[in-house]
Design goal:
By secondary structure, the protein is α/β, with parallel strands linked by helices. The chain is built from 14 helices and eight strands. Strands 1, 2, 3, 4, 5, 6, 7 and 8 form an eight-stranded mixed sheet that branches. The longest helix is centred in the middle third of the chain and has 15 residues. The structure holds S-adenosylmethionine (SAM). S-adenosylmethionine binds next to α2 and β2.
Length: 308
């Protein structure tokens, strides 16, 4: 990830997903002059304050969603940045703390809210109708037996604990000895992505990165699920002009469509065996890197096209 970002001495980088600060620390150690790091989880930001103080102005923490990076940079008087990093998904801190309700391995309240506000997993599962739950499990968890799981959830309501939900799913799907993964994995993933609007955040975050990167600036995105990687892949194909014209962004942009705003850097990178041994979660991780060109961001091109 770090090599791909090609951090140069004194640059300003934006880490959209601070988490425990691993990437931020690496970017600072590589010589960046300043890192502006976002996390939507107030606990991650609170735990990062000590590092922020140690860095004496080289690290600025922002308790905000990365989709709002443009507004947050404007508010701090920061112009274009040299690099944007997004490491999509949940942190080990979120998974490891049972009280956050993300884990099916330890029992806790059925919560799963990254921002600690809004609808909880329990609110959703205890009020949504069966079809809506099934759609979420199918679309965001790629659960092949989504209807069966949704029916079992509705029959077991109210459900208030992660342990209860995991048991309901395991009973509904049965134990399949050839399956390495816990059958509850897909259900927990789907509900988490739904509640936190993670796919919408990713789409909006990519478009925001296009706005804040200077020409030549690098975008590095690590995603953990094929469902997220597809969004990144589609965005970069489109913005680099690899998608034939006629896509939903192009028709109103005038003859020939907008000039490519990104160029891909290298091929997508999957985790090495050594990386997987160190961090088993990285097994399905994919890193994609692209360089910002000097063309206008597509959103403003399309808006201009509409105004004229
Ligand atoms: C996989 S972890 C990042 C780990 C980090 N790279 C590190 O080295 O410690 C993802 C983090 O991103 C945060 N996050 C997820 N979606 C976000 C969003 N839309 N905006 C800001 N932070 C987000 C989560 O709260 C979590 O702390």
């Amino acid at each position: 990830m770090l090599a791909a970002l090609a951090v140069a001495e004194g640059e300003t980088h934006l880490d959209g997903t601070f988490g425990a600060g691993g990437y931020t620390r690496a970017i600072l150690s590589a010589g960046a002059g300043r890192v502006i790091a976002f996390d939507r989880d107030p606990d991650a930001i609170a735990e990062g304050r000590a590092l922020e103080a140690e860095c004496e102005g080289r690290l600025i923490l922002v308790s905000e969603r990365f989709s709002r990076m443009g507004e947050a940079l404007d508010a701090r008087g920061v112009g274009a940045v040299d690099g944007v990093t997004l490491d999509i998904g949940v942190s080990s801190m979120q998974i490891d703390r049972a009280d956050r309700g993300f884990s099916f391995q330890s029992d806790g309240p059925l919560d799963m809210r990254m921002e600690r506000e809004g609808e909880s997993a329990a609110d959703f599962l205890n009020t949504a109708d069966e079809a809506e739950i099934a759609d979420v499990l199918h679309d965001l968890g790629e659960e092949p037996r989504a209807r069966r799981v949704a029916r079992a959830i509705v029959a077991a309501r109210p459900i208030t604990r992660t342990g209860e939900l995991a048991d309901v799913v395991r009973r509904a799907l049965g134990h399949r000895p050839h399956e390495k993964k816990d059958p509850a994995t897909r259900t927990f993933q789907a509900i988490r992505i739904h509640l936190n609007r993670e796919l919408e955040e990713l789409e909006e975050g990519l478009a925001a990165a296009e706005q804040v990167l200077r020409p030549g600036g690098r975008l590095a995105v690590v995603s953990f699920h094929s469902i997220e990687d597809r969004i990144v892949k589609r965005f970069l194909r489109e913005r680099s002009g690899a998608t034939p014209s006629g896509s939903r962004h192009r028709p109103d942009a005038g003859a020939g469509g907008p000039a490519p705003s990104f160029e891909a850097v290298g091929k997508p990178v999957r985790a090495s065996e050594a990386e997987i041994a160190r961090n088993p979660r990285s097994r399905s991780a994919t890193l994609r890197v692209a360089r910002r060109t000097s063309a206008l961001p597509w959103v403003s091109v399309v808006e201009k096209g509409r105004q004229s």
